[in-house]
Every structure is written in C-alpha cells, then in structure tokens.
Amino acid sequence: GDMPSGAVALVGARVITMANLASGPIQGTPGVIENATLIVEGNRITAVGPSSSVSVPAGATRVDVKGKTIMPGIIDVHGHLGSESNGLVAQSSWQLAANLAFGVTTSHDPSNDSETVFTNAELVRAGAKLGPRVFSTGTILYGAETPFKAVVESYDDALSHVRRQKALGAISVKSYNQQRRDARQMIVKAARELDILDVPEGGSLLYMNQTQILD
After folding, report:
1. What whole-number distance in Å separates Cα of residue 46 and Cα of residue 73?
2. Residue 170: is it exposed, middle or buried by C-beta count within 10 angstroms (0-12/13-18/19+)?
3. Among residues 24, 81, 84, 112, which one has the fewest Cβ atoms lying within 10 Å of its Cβ?
4. Neighbours of 23 (CB within 10 A)
5. Residue among 56, 24, 23 at smallest CA distance from 41
C-alpha cells in the first residue's frame, strides 16, 4: 500500500493506552496520559508518552491536539460493512468512512459479496479508498437452498470451497447453516488444512450450535 514519509508530532492530547485498562474505569487509570505527545514517523507510531518526556524530531510537523482524545484503533471482528452491487465499486463508501469515524481501523466482515468486499479491501490497502483495513470471509458457504448454495457432499467439496475463497483473498470462511454435521466437520478440517479460519454459524438451534462448539 501507500507509504507516507516524514514525521508528525501530535501534541497535547489525552491518550488512552493499552496499559492496565482492565484494572478499572478508563479515567484516572495508569493507561491514560492526560497531556501526551505522540510521534508518527512514516506509517509507525515511534513514541508516545507525557509531553514533558517525549522529544519532537527536528523537522516534524507539529499538530496541536489539545482537548482531543487519542485511542488505539478498534478491531471489529464481526462488522457487516455493506457494499456496492452489480459489479460497480464507488470511489468512496460511507460505510467504510463511518467505521473510521467511530474509531474502527480494522474490520472483519463475516458475510459479504466476494467480488466487492475483496476489491474494496485491495483499494483501501493501496490507499485508493478511505476505510479501515478490511478482512472478510467473502460470500458465505451457505447450506440453505439458494442459487449460491455451497454443496458439501465430500471432503473434496469442502476443500474446493475453502480453496476458492482463500484464493479470492479470504482470511476466513463462514460455514453457515450447513445442515449436516459431517459437512460442517469437513469444512472445519479443510480450513485447518489450508490454514484459514472457520467461523461457523447456525440457525439458533441449540443442538446444532453445541455440535459447532464441539467440532
């Protein structure tokens, strides 16, 4: 993707760090620095700490962020981002922009159109579209009767489905409402063999959900 150059100093913000956040309310815990300076060089945060102890590199662009709060980016592991349709991908997406505006910098969408979501992921990665980093299952491996049903009669079927989703750019596959337990197990095994995550979902049926947990 695009690699920025130079250095930026964000000066005077309240910074929420990951330190000791589990020990109590955010305000007043050791994880909060009330008057902090944060240094970004290239595309990496290289320093963060009390303004009195962080030195600003020569030539860095200083940005006064007093009154603002800076926090780590949120990773949303189950966020449906929506998408364009009919093979037309817009230059900007309000859904992607809205996620960023609310602090989501990485999103995993466990059900989206393969063609569109992986195109958007590549555009974001290349710096051509504004949005969080996008990861997805792409199109679900659906067991219900639909035009895009993923039929799993054999282990080779399961391998084929998982292999094609991985080739498209998926980091995970969604085994969704596969009615037979052996089919669900074959998808689990295929995902393990091909080193990809399997995120199964059922139809709010207790026994199906229990077997998904067991498998």
Report:
1. 16
2. buried
3. 24
4. 9
5. 56
Cβ atoms of 196 and 171 closer than 8 Å? yes
Residue-by-residue DSSP string for 170-184:
-SEE-EES--SHHHH
What's the rounded Cα separation, in Å, for the pair 58 and 104?
31
Number of H helices, E strands in the chain: 5, 12
Dihedral pair phi/psi, residue 134, rounded to 5°: -110, 125
Alpha helices in the chain (DSSP H): 94-101, 114-125, 155-168, 181-193, 206-214
The one-letter amino acid code at 13 reads A
Please list the residues that pair with 20 across neighbouring strands. Answer: none
Q: CB neighbours (10 Å) of residue 154?
A: 12
Q: Which one, of 132, 134, 152, 130, lies nearest residue 143 by Cα?
A: 152
**Using an 8 Å Cβ cutoff, are 48 and 54 in contact?**
yes
| pLDDT at site 24 | 52
Question: Which residue matches tokens 């970004």?
Answer: 40
The closest of 15, 9, 7, 8 to 68, measured between CA atoms, is: 15
Cβ-based neighbours of 211, under 8 Å, separated by 6 or more: 181, 184
Rounded to whole angstroms, the Cα distance separating 111 from 126 reads 23
Count how many residues are written for the chain.
215
- The pTM assigned to this predicted structure is 0.84
- pLDDT tens for 16-58 read 988 765 555 555 456 889 999 999 999 899 999 999 999 999 9
Mapping DSSP to helix (H, G, I), strand (E, B) and coil, where does residue 33 land? strand
Query: What is the radius of gyration, based on Cα positions, of the chain?
Result: 22
